[in-house]
Amino acid sequence: MDYRDYIESKYDILLGKPVIKGTRISVELILKKMSEGAAVEDILLAYPQLTPLSISAVLAYASDVVANESLITAA
Question: Angle 57-47-66 (CA atoms, 0-180°, nearest 5)?
Answer without folding.
Answer: 30
